[in-house]
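Researcher: We are triaging several targets before committing to wet-lab work. For this one, the compound of interest is PH2. I'm pasting the protein sequence and the ligand SMILES. What I need is the predicted three-dimensional arrangement of the protein with the ligand bound, expressed as structure tokens, so it can go straight into our comparison scripts without reformatting.
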Amino acid sequence: MLISGEKMDYVNINNLEIFANHGVFPEENFLGQKFLVSAKMGVDIRKAGLSDDLNNTLNYGEICQYITDFMKNNTFKLIETVVERLAEKMLLNFELLKSIELTIKKPWAPIGLPLETASITIKRSWHRAFIALGSNMGDSKAYLDNGLKSLNCDKIKVLKTSEYMVTKAYGYTDQPDFLNACTMVDTLLTPHELLDRLHEIEKEAHRERIIRWGPRTLDLDIIFYDKLIFEDDELVIPHIDMENRDFVLFPMKEIAPNFRHPILNKTMTQLSEQLSDR
Ligand SMILES: Nc1ncnc2c1ncn2[C@@H]1O[C@H](COP(=O)(O)OP(=O)(O)OP(=O)(O)O)[C@@H](O)[C@H]1O
Ligand SMILES: Nc1nc2c(c(=O)[nH]1)N=C(CO)CN2
């Protein structure tokens, strides 16, 4: 399976003409106008190329019909909204589609000045993320089970989860043992949207932040998000301390032994061996 950032093949559609009613001005909604839609769709077409079987790729006829129906059956003010909603629906609906660069042009934009087109282009894709789970209060197994259930939704697909492991508390050690695991997901959420969702799930588990590194019903941390290296006041990716935590590295080694830390340039197997040798 292709992961975003890796080499990709594309199926392309250029300037599909659709008459629809999007626009900020009431007359645009009432009278309608022409839109031109182009899509560069990331799909692994190797299998189709070798098998000559349409089932192994995206059928561009079906895609054009899907785009046309979406454009005609909805009315939005902004073409920004049209591209955003359409890209998301396509990524959710077509299983082989991993990424999309979508452009919508308005050749008749009613601005009273001569222009060829006004247009919006966005790039959206599925992202591969790894999330660590931990609990050391109440029924920890149930908290982890329910956390994973809540995580799995249309925009977050839980693909593979490690065994649950009992671990000694790290950091603040005067507290009960933890139950820990890691899970691999594909998501359409941005890193901050994913963090917000994790916080909501922690809240559903009545997680309270009292002591730093203290006991908790459920803790959910983003360990990796693609090969992203990112830091702001709310979010550090890769997780800042993961290479020192056996309760993260061991489950990571189980589900993604060859995944390479984008800063340390070591695989999960190498990092967990390095930690065991300390
Ligand atoms: N990769 C990340 N995943 C989750 N939270 C993060 C991440 N990077 C930064 N944070 C921030 O850390 C804050 C504190 O998180 P939390 O209360 O879960 O900390 P902790 O679990 O006690 O400690 P630690 O984050 O070291 O495991 C969160 O509100 C979040 O904004
Ligand atoms: N064993 C273990 N120790 C911890 C854990 C955890 O999940 N497992 N989480 C912490 C803060 O996130 C602090 N210490």
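Researcher: Any quick observations?
Model: Residues 79-93 form the longest helix (15 residues).
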